[in-house]
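Changelog-adjacent note: as of this version, every example in the card shows the full chain rather than a window. The one below runs 297 residues end to end.
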Amino acid sequence: MRVLFTYMGAPTTKDEIEDFIFRLLYDVRQHIGLDVPGAKAVIKGIAKARARQVRGHYDVIGGKSPLVEYMTEIANAVSEKTGHEIKLGMCYSRPLLEELDCDFDLIFPLYHVYSISTTERCLVKIRRLFGEKPYVREWGNNESFIRWVQGNIEVGLKESGFEEPYVILSVHSLPKRVIDEGDPYLRSHEKLAKKVMEPFNLPWELAFQSKFGRGRWLGPEVPEVLERLSSEGVKEVLVYPLSFLVENIETLYELDVEYRKVADALGLKYYRARLNHRDPLLSEAIAEVIENAVNEN
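Full-length structure tokens:
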């Protein structure tokens, strides 16, 4: 059986950043007000300007993002567990979906929470390239996955050495209009967060990161929460990126560098719990979901 792991993707090196941004913005141009005469030229200009800024972020984290490499490791681990042939195909970065030369029996988006802005965007592209295929819509309620998240937080708490930490579960933001139109993304993350934090006798809340573009986005953003906590007398803050599976530019730069500077300026002790994608619990969770999907189909 052939399974396609898919994700919107991420540039691995600085040289790929501009192409990635262009592919993404051009694909969603109708949704962001850029479906205009000369759209390609306009979007190329935006991508070039944005890439100049992002390249500096890559310099800070060592010049490359490990996202594709780490997702490949997950695919290999799940393949070993299940015996299925698993390929990785990205919407906007290599390995690109359109460059894959084989067909698939099941589509597995590496988004554990569904959104029209992420999972569905990948599925639309896949349907265009490969036709209708069985797919996994959402899998963040898998018990092994929840234990994996809890394990990452437990390790972070131990490593931090904090005695009275406040936990921030960071989630990638979306335009608020997407949620207002019925997208389940926020509701699913709220449900997942409550389940994850059940064993911990700690104060916690959801906050958001990675806002990009104009308009109203989901909030509050992590820096806003840090400022509020500081004003309330909180001393120790542990952050965990709930909406991600592997380390990437948004964890390694935004959380580890940009938001840490905010915490330092506020006098907060700040620790960011890691995403241990090599923990067998994660590959077990995905393998379980795949086998359930195979049995249903």
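Structural remarks: The chain has a mean pLDDT of 95.
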